[in-house]
Structures are given as C-alpha cells and as structure tokens.
Amino acid sequence: DGEIEFENVSFSYEARTTALNGVSFKVPKGSSVALVGESGSGKSTILRLLYRFYDLKDGEGRILIDGKDIRDVTQLSLRKAIGVVPQDSVLFNASIGYNIRYGKFGASEEDIEAAAKAAQMHDRIMSFPDGYETKVGERGVRLSGGEKQRVAIARTLLKNPPILLLDEATSALDTSTEKDIQKALQNLVRGRSSLSIAHRLSTIASADLILVLKDGQIVEQGSHRELLALD
Ligand code: ADP
Ligand code: ADP
C-alpha cells in the first residue's frame, strides 16, 4: 500500500486567496513524485493537506490513500502510514537512541542499529563516548544540521511508513552536507511512495514524476527527460 491520489483538490486558507485550484495527480505505490514551483505556488499546502493538518470540505475535492478518503482515516493510522522529514529536524534533548526510537519505542537494539546504519549515522554515534546513550542538545553533544537530519532519517526508517513527505527547503543545509545525506535519503525513499518539495537537482532528476505548480495549479508534468524536451 501507499498509493496517493488527489482528485480535483481546491483549497483556500482564507477567502479570496486560493492556495490550490483543481489539483489532480496520482502517486502510484512505491513511486516518487517531486513538486516544483516558485514560492507560494502551493507545494507545502499539498503536503499539509495529505497530513491532514487541514481538512478539505465537501466540494473541495478528495484525497485518497489506497482508495480511501483520508477524512475517513483516523489521525493515528494516518501518522503511522506517513513519515515526514522536514527541512531541518529538531531533536529532543535526550539520548540519540531515544531520538531514533521515538515513534517506535518497542524496537530492538538491532533494528535501531540497522536504521542508524542505513541512515549513515551509526559510525558517528559509535564515535561518541556513550554511543547510543549519548545525550544530544544543550546538555550533550552538539550535532551538525546534517547529523540531526540523519537521526531523523533513522527514526523514519525504523518507523517504516509506506508514505514519505519530504520538504527540501533551500536554506537548511549547505551543498556538501546535502551530498553527505544523499545516500541516507536514498535508503529512506527506496520502496516507498514519496512526495517531495524538491529543490535538489538529484531529487528532481530521479523522481518518477515531476509536477510543476504555479498559482495553485499543475501547469506541467512529466519525467525530467520529458520536461527538458519541452524547452
Ligand atoms: P509553496 O509551498 O509552494 O511556497 P504554499 O503552499 O505555502 O506554497 O502557499 C500557497 C498559497 O497559500 C500562497 O499564496 C501562500 O501565501 C498561502 N498560504 C500558505 N500558508 C498559509 C497560511 N498558513 N495562511 C494563509 N495563507 C497561506
Ligand atoms: P505553518 O507554516 O502553517 O506554520 P508549519 O510549516 O510550521 O506550518 O507546519 C506545522 C505542522 O504541519 C508540522 O509540524 C507538520 O505536522 C505539518 N507540516 C507542515 N509542513 C509540512 C511538510 N512540508 N511536510 C509535512 N508536514 C508538514
């Protein structure tokens, strides 16, 4: 499972400003869709609606996961089905292990380690004196932006949701850090349905489908190759 469908979705935060206007698309199970478009075009709104941060009203279209209207899905099962990796991850002032286990506290040590390895964070964690028990934040080690991101990726790998929402805001990480977490992200995205607010060229180039948004509408769509052929 993990198929997402937007059916003629329109949405306004306030009267007279339309954030989305008749948006329809499908993310087939296991495929990656990249949202591109200038600031204010509606990319974040798509993710927020899918996460039910806001609900659609009757007449504003439908959002379906595996054929089911998400308004008929409980928040809890939606949160189980969807993993979110935001632009810059904030960690709890707790141990690294706690931060990875958060959301799946019953996980075994082996599973936690496997997730940290896939997130390319295990070796770094083992370099700390207390390993997975090392505290992060104010009273512990200070992690770089990329390292925090990898901890968040490990947490999401452990949670193992069929759907991923990724927000690659431009500001958070410098280019070399981005390159650094690329492998971890690839491990996360593989085999899941993903919807990304895409800024990295590599994300756009590897997406199965690119949706170009403008003023709340999809104005172009296709593979990277197809879109390049248009120009
Ligand atoms: P993007 O992610 O592509 O930058 P958004 O989805 O954030 O675009 O925004 C789409 C439109 O909705 C914009 O006109 C934006 O100003 C407006 N908008 C976004 N968030 C809010 C909000 N919380 N309240 C009111 N308007 C908003
Ligand atoms: P706002 O811009 O309206 O203040 P935020 O961006 O701070 O909203 O997000 C508030 C919550 O909405 C997040 O904690 C998350 O649950 C959800 N959310 C917002 N943006 C995203 C996103 N890009 N991907 C997934 N969830 C998001």
From TrEMBL:
Localization (cell): Membrane
Domain ABC transporter: 4-231
Coiled-coil residue windows: none
Signal peptide: none
Family: Belongs to the ABC transporter superfamily. ABCB family. Heavy Metal importer (TC 3.A.1.210) subfamily.
Protein name per Swiss-Prot or TrEMBL: P-loop containing nucleoside triphosphate hydrolase protein
Shown stretch of the complete protein: 654 to 884 of 1137
